[in-house]
Structures are given as structure tokens and as C-alpha cells.
Amino acid sequence: MEREGIGPFGEPPARTSARSSAGLGPAPMAFPANNTNRWVPIGPSVVRQGQAEGRPRVSGRVRDLAVSPDGQRAYAGTAKGGVWYTGDGGATWEPLGGWANEPRRFGGNTSAFACGCLLVNFGANAGADFVMVGTGEFDAMQGVDGADAIRGVGILAASGPAAGAVSSDPWETATGIAALEGVSITRMVRVPGSAPGAAGDRVIAATSGGRDLGWNIQGGGLYLGTRSMVGGNLSFTWSALPLPAPAPSPPANGAAMAPVNRAPTDLCYVGNRLFVCFRSSGIAFSDDHGNTFNWITQNFLPAPTVPATGRLDGRMSMAVNDDNTALYILGEVTTNPAGGNPVPHIWQIANPGDAAPIANPLNNIPSAANLWPGQRDYDQAIVVTTRNTALVPPPVRTDRVYIGGSLIQVNNWNASIWAFDVNGNNLVPSPGVSDQPVGTNSGATQPGLIGDAVHPDVHSLRKATNADGSRQIWVGCDGGVFVSLRDGQTNTFSSRNVGLASIESIFSASHPTSSHFSMLGCQDNGRQVRVGSTVWEMKTSMQGDGGGVTFHPVQSHYVMGQFANADWACDPAGRYRAPCNLINNDPESNASNFYSGIDTVRRAAGNLGRVALGTNRVWVTDNLGTSNPNTWRVLPITAAGTFVQWRDGRPGNRTPSTAANMAFGVPPAGFGPVVTVKWVDERTLLALFNQGVIRYSEDPGNAGRWTSTALIGPGVAAPAAPLVTPQATFFTDIAPVPGTSDFYLVTTGQTNTWTPAVPATPTSAAVAAVSPTAAADSCFYYDDAAGGCRLTGLGQALPPMPPLATSPIDPAYSVTVDPANPNTVYVGTSTAVWTATRIAGNAHGPWQLFVNGLPEAVVQDLHIWQDPSGAGTSPRLMRATLQSRGVWEVNLAAAEPARTYVRVHPRDDRRMFPTPMQNPRLRPGAAAEPFFSSPDIVVRPEAPVGTTPSFRGTNIWNGNLRYQLWTFQTAFRWIYPSVIPNGEWSDQMGDLVERHRRLRGIANPGARRIDAALWADVMANALDENGSPGVYRAPWQNAAVPALPGSEIDLMETVVPRRVRNSVWQVYRERSTVDVLLHHRDTRPVAANGAFVVLLWRSGASQNTLLGTDCTNLVPFVRSLTGGAPQPTPPGWNVALAADGTPLNRLSVDLAARMPRAVSINVDLSGVSTGHRILLLAVVGSTNDVFSAVPTGPVTSVENLVRNWPHAAARVVSVWPRPGNQLFP
User: Fold this and answer.
1) Which of 158, 480, 501, 585 is most buried, most CB within 10 Å of its CB?
2) pTM of this prediction?
3) Which residues pair with 217 in a beta bridge?
């Protein structure tokens, strides 16, 4: 959707919007409208090498899933990235209303992109789905960064939102914000008999009030939404329902009931009866849709498992079986209310329709240590299926309970997901799913456990049904979405995260010399580096969480990243020593922020750099990469003007240390821990604490002697008006102003946080919500000469929502100053990026939105990369790190046209010409990348084959015979869809091999290897949806999506060459398929069939001769294919034709910046002589960019062409005869 009249910063037109006309105030315009200051995503669209067994592909936190009955369509509610939709069983995802702007009234840490739950009524197709989104995450609270769970702004509703354009705002105007702003919606359920989306539709929502700044749990309630005509449109009106009064006799084990106004955590209907779980209180039911309640007797496991002192504690979840005859509740009982020995419970209500139903505990649930060690209220999910276990009349129906929690260590940290069948009062491992058959190694690693190869931290479990009646189990977790198509059987889950750009980004950093290479710290997804256009990779040595990250400014192959608190890692690690060698309950680590920033500066002499980071004090190293090991020193806290020698805060990094050592450099009480550090120059450092700013300065004549000055914080005298003392719940970021001693300080913009409403009960009156109080500003300018802070006016920039007259609070989390234009400042808030210009007197002009193409998500970090060479044609890239939407960039140096391109090498972003050839992952000065090995051109055998390939060589039981293993996997996945054909052996692969041998009765059934017998069985029985051999079929296609184009990660991982010699792939002399990956730099996608590839190829005995081919005529030739006078094919070249007989091989789906896609082109290589080289040259364009880039230099050779023209890339392969069976006899 494009609109006229958009300003240069992407600001909205000066006219009444649809929302303002509806009385809700104007909203910023974000979907791109022009090419000036246009943002584009650089991923992660998916992350390689994620955390779990087998290192699966991962994404960010998915709070809830809604899955169609057949599993083909699904919606994913992400932590802070909005709702995503798949119409292909999770193979790919698209954002839903990803550029919508939902106004807020009071604001604070609230967002429409924060998802708590989904309620979807699936129609016949996506256009008939009625979708409701409960905004706000469970246990939301305000923190120093945007990583904490965020509160909501009500409930979004739309009919058929997935059928609209990606740029559209599908949500209805009314969200119930007046009643629901500042709370989180934890679950919704439709009143039985209601017609979804129609007048009279009724929905009940459970809400959570989150936590206050002291982590105390706040109340929640139940709300009824009734759909009717309001202002000419159907919309929901929300009103509070009364909560039940405390029971006369405590229902949960006879124990005293916690305050009932604690949040309802789940609810569901069984028939016409509503059941509700109340946090730490119990379970109640209502037969009048929530107007009155009755408490249910809830028994605990008997002593000694749970003594008489046991108490119900925390959150509970519930699920009903397929037959609607039994209800199951997952929760926990503490055996010592003072804190210790919690016991998870699964309760069964076998008589939900009785007048007095009872919840009884089932035996054999996993321990708290295995299910959710300390994370019960964060990680919790349950779903129940029912199946026939005996067919004799009447059939015996058995319930199967799936539960999800946090993590469990099995080779790696995996998801704690379990499957049990209900047998009387006992839970037993599900036969064939989670059991351990005697004498095998292919069953569950622990009885009941099925979460192998799934990322930890489970938030949602959902079910669907296959055509044969078996079940799909879907998982929403901190690693995105995982699916099993085989009843959740152990080792059958696979990642479904391609395109789901929901990584919770914390901090990012750019390589000092590469415009492409970047690093990212992520919530629960470690520290990652960018390895493609939008594909990132988790570093093996940096799994877990991820906070501050940086590249060394000189030894740029050294990267550092924070796990959490005071735990900092480095790669490479051989010469690295961490500042703090941590011990259990380390006092310094415990006093640190969970996430904090890190900064580096290049020194003027000696080709050296400095690295600074913070815990509850500031650490600096000068010799990372140049000394073995490096050394760390703590900067002192001094009297004004007094210089003190820095020193090791833990001498020799020994732990534990003395109290005096641990106190050195710690600022006075009230400052709190370090938020981030920023170098002003190599001898001046600003440290931002939760509630203060300290400037450290090194004595120029005495290295290592420092003085500190508290500029803002406890004990600092208040400046005279008009200067102000900043006040806020948290200070969040700081940015020095180049060439001055001034800086910007941004804050949460509020002095207190939300206090939610307390609904009425039959015995008490309702208490109204208290909104947060706005601070004087959210961005301050520290004027060093004046000695204090000036207001900038950002806190009043958002338009108010009538009838309120004041701006909503918009917490700011990041700030940066343009090094090329020091008077220009950019601030990232919970909704947008804003910019202002500093003018005379250090005042500021009006704040303007800087959001052309940027989604309305929390902008956690901002930084600007510029080319150190100072080349005039180089870009100057500002990168925004968004919570749950990844990293986005904008070129501040020049407007950019839409560009369709291919890459010379994996670290090529086609922003600098001629393409730089150095690999930024390697040590500076390492060998350059080849220009004839583009990652965007891969070759595989054509499929379907006429004859399956022969088994060659010895048994395959590891990854040594990679091509043979990959060949086997391309077939095996048609039997076991969880197999990723990447030529790598894993424990999951071994289990499936053993399982298949036993099922098929193949000799040596316990063997975990591929031999001739297994190979023959799989080649004969692994058939695609057409009944043809599945071997070599495009590894990203399956029966549900038989024509799916490949994605970037598919080409990276699942096309394996026979061998690689000197960067040249070896392929077989046979009919082949060339996959060409297209990229498009513009958030506005190219429509299906609008992007295309011209594939030219030639062969010869000499690689050098091929690469020396004069390419002068190629540019006019390919341009002639889309219009103008036709030109003949340049001599010596072959052109691969599309199915329609034209040279334009078209992409059948949309092409967007966040999702590069591949065109597959068949080429017959059988006529090429053995050992000869083939030069494959791909030229790409689109209706948005018809080969329009002007070459930046000569195109007289292949190297010149591909390095000077973004539309062209090349790969050289050599051809060899296939041994054994020929695929196409």
C-alpha cells in the first residue's frame, strides 16, 4: 500500500487519518513510500546453528500458536514482533499487519506488537479466518532495556488478515484500549454458540497485570467482549467480569488461599461450562459465562511427596481432551512456602460436567529440575489428544498429555517437552512416541521426553491432524516454531522458522571495515554473526543468551559478546581472559544488569584498540589480540580532579576476591549497575548506570591513571534552571556528541510504571488502574559547558489520543549521533526512530519520525557504520536493532533505488563497488575470496530421476562421506520429514536410521549406519507426492508445498556438492538443476513472476580462459530481453530457457528484502567433456529493477563484470562421470 505526500523522513501526510477520524488520534506512517531514508531488513530471517541437539534453525520467542485442523495454516504470536502467518505448514512465514500503527493512550512499556495469546476461528481459507490477538506478554514489567516482557494495548481483531497485502493494517480500530491498556492478555476463549466475528459474538479474556519495579506480582482479571455495531462498524466492547470471592473452605489441598485478584492464567470451556485457573489460588468454574463462580476441590500428591505444608504456587495452564470429556491442568505445588522443593503437578478433572468436579493429581510427572528449573511462570504449556487403544466395541479411548517447560541437558540444552498416556491415575511414556523399547537406542533419551532437537523454553503446544489420523504437535518456544508430523515422536521434530523474523535483538555491532558483516546479541539465542543477506549464525562458543557485542577495532577477527551479567566471552578464545572468572552466586555478576553494552575505540598510535565494558563497575583492556592473555583493569572512582591508578579488580582474576578488591571502582549507592559504556575518545569514557552518568578521563601524561566525575546521579547538585536533573525509572542509553564534551541521555520517560485495575469480587469493590507518570522528557542533552541537562522535547513528540491532551509515554532505549553530521541525533523508542537537529544554544528543532519502511517495534539499539576509507561513493549505514523484528538499516549517505541483485561472495551486500573481496570473518590481511564461487548459484542433480543412485563405498555412520550421506537424506526425508538433507550426521539421524531398520526388518536392526540394504530400501520406498523417487528432489519441497522456491538458508545448507577443490564445485555430467538466489533491497516486494534470472553458461578445458571471457556484450544483451531491439546471444554462450521457452526464468512468488528466494533452472550438462570447467553466469532483474544499475567500472572480464555490476554473479564447476547407476539412462 503506497500513499502520496510522504515527507523525506517517512512522516505521515498532514491530513486526517482513518484512525483520527474514528476518534483515536493520528498514527505514524511506516510502510515505505519512497526511496529516501528507506529502511530495509538485514535479518535474521532465520538463524543457523541454533541451540538444541543437531543445532537447528531458530528464530525468536513465540508466545502462542493457532493451527488449522489440518496443520496447513497457522498463526504465530511473537514476543514483540506481532503476528506471523504461514499457509504452507510452517515452510515460510509472512508478517501480519507488520507495519500497522496502533495508537496508545497513556503509553509506557506497551505495544501492539507484544503478543500474549491468539484466538483464531479457521474458515475455508485464509480470507475466511477470524483472528484475534491478545496483546501484552505474561508477567510484563518495565526494565532498563526493551528485552523485558511488554504490556499490551488491548485486543486486535480482523477478518481474513492474511489475505491482505503485506503493507496493509488489517486490524479493526477498536481494541478495548480504554479498559485493557497496560495489562497483558494471557488467554481468550469464545462463548459457546457465538458466531465468530458476527454481531453478538462473545469472547472472554483473561488478563495479567504483570509485575512492578520490585518484581511483585500485580493483579489481573476477566473481561467479556461483546461484538456489536459501533459507529457504523462491527467491533468488540470490553467490560470487566467480577472475580470469585475466596472460598469458604480453601479448595487447594485445604491450604490458605492466596489473594484471588492475582491473575487468571488460563481458561477454557468444556461444553457450556467455563473453567478458569487463578494464579496461586485454584481452579473455579462458571455455568453463566463468568458472572458467578464455584471453586473446585484440588488435591495434591500425598505425603511425603507433598507434606501438609504444601501450597499451590504460581501459574497454571489447562487443556481439554479431543472428546471434550476430561480436563487437564499443569501447575506446581511448593512443599515449603518459604521457598524450596517445588513439585510439578498434572491434575485431571475426569468429571468436568458434574455438579462438584474434583481435580486429582496424576503420578509420574517429571521433576521441577527436569521440567522447568526455576522458570515455571515463564515456560509452561499443555495440550491433550485422544486415541483409540483398543478397537473392540466399545472402543477404548486413551488420553495423551503433552507438557512443555524450560530445558533439559541431553548432549545440548533441549526443550523440556514430554508425552505421557493416561493409565488410571498414572502417566506412562507414550508407546512408540516417548518410550524406551528394550534393547534399542532409538527411543526416548529419558522415559517420556520428546523435546530433543527443539530449542528450550516452551510457551505453546498445539495439535493438528494428518490425513491418516495421526497427529501433528506444534511447539512455540524461545527458538520460534517446531513441528512433529508423527505424534510428537522423539527425534521427529523439525524447525519451522524460515522467514519468521522474530529474533529478540538486544545489541548489535558492525565490522570496522565491512559494510556487511555484523554481530548481534539476542535474548535466549546467543551471540550471532551475519553470514548471508538475511541469514545469521549462532556462534558455537556463544550460545545461551546474548547482550552486548563488539568487534575489536584493529584485530577485527576478535569478537566479544555478553552471555548475561558479568559473563563475557571472546572468539577466538585461545588468548583471551575474561574480566571476571565467575563463581556460583558471584556478587559482582549478581550486581550487574542482565544485559549491558560494550564499546571499543581505536588508538591513535601503535595499531591498538581499547575495549570497555561494565558490571557494577567499569573494566578496560588495552591488549586483546596482542597479548597472551590479555589483561583487564577496573577504572577508579575518585575525588574530582584526582588521578588514581587503574588496577585489576580481582587480582590475577582470582575468585573469590577480597572485599576491598570487589569494592574498588564501584560508584556510590544509588547509581546501580552499568547500562552501557561509550568512548568519547581513546582517553575519555562515558559510563551510563541505571541512575547516573560518570565520565572517566585518563591522564595524558601518565598512562593508566584515571579520574572520574559524576555528571548525573545521586549526590550531584541540581543545576540552575533552565537546566534540569533527569528523572526516570531507568536511564537506557547515552551517545557522545563528536567534537564536544556533551552527550545525549535517553530514558524510559516515566517516573513510575503501570498499576493495573483490580476487578470487583462479590465481597470487594473494583479498584481503578493507575497509569504511569510521565517524566519531564525521554531525551536529554547534557551541555557540559553549562553544567547540566537540557530538555529536547522528545517526550512530547507523539500525538495525543483524544480525549487525552498529553502525549503517550514513549520509552526511549537507544540514541546515536551522526558522525558525519554531529548536529543530527537519532533516538529509538518503543515505537519508532525519531530525529532532530541541534540548533543554536544547544536547543533542538522539532522531532520528526524517521520510519520510512520501519515496523513499529521496540528500537533497542542504534549505531552508524561508515567506511573508514572515506570513499565518497560508500554508504553510511544506520542500523536499528528491533525487539522481535531483527536488524534494519538505512543509508544516510544517499537515497537508494530498489535493487534486485546477486552476490559475488557470502559477505557481499552489493553496497560497495568494486565489490570488496576480503573475508571479514578472517584475520585482517587474509587471502581474498574468489569471485567465481557465488553462494547464489548452486548445482544439484535434476529430479525426478529415472534410476536411483547406487550405494557406493563403505557404510555411512558419520559425516565423512558427505555427498553420499546428503544423497541418502534427500530421499530419507520423504519418510521422516524432520530430516534436513545437509550431509551432516547427528544423534537424531542415527536414531531414525536405527528406528527405520527395525520397522522394515532390515538386517542388523540395531545398527546406526547406512549400508547397502538400508540404502536400497529407502531408495525404493521414499517416494514424493507423485509416486516418483524422492531422491534429489529439491530439499526444501514436500508433499504440502511441492513447488516451493528455495530460500537463502536452503541453498546454504541443503545443496551439497560432490567435492570442492580450490573453490570449484565438482558435479556430475548429467541433467542438472541450477538454483539461483535472488535478493531485493526494498521492503516493498516484487510481485510473483516479477523477478527473473537469465542464466548463461559456457564450458572449456581451461578455467583461466573461461574467466577471461570478454563480457562487454552481456549487459546490452540481457537488457534487450526485457525491451528494445533484440540482440543475438553473445558468441560462445548458452542460454538456459524457462518452461515457456524464453530466457527469463521467473520467480513464482513475491521477492522481498527479508526473504531472498531461488529460481530453479534445468541445464543438461551431460554433453560436457569430463574434467572440463563450466562457467555459470546468472544475471537477475525484476519489474522493479530491470537491470537498471549502471556498471561502476569496465565489464571486459568475468571478474570485472561481477564486481562492478550488482545484477551478475558467477560460479565455476567441473564435471565428472557418475559412478554406478546413471540417473537418466
Assistant:
1) 480
2) 0.96
3) 211
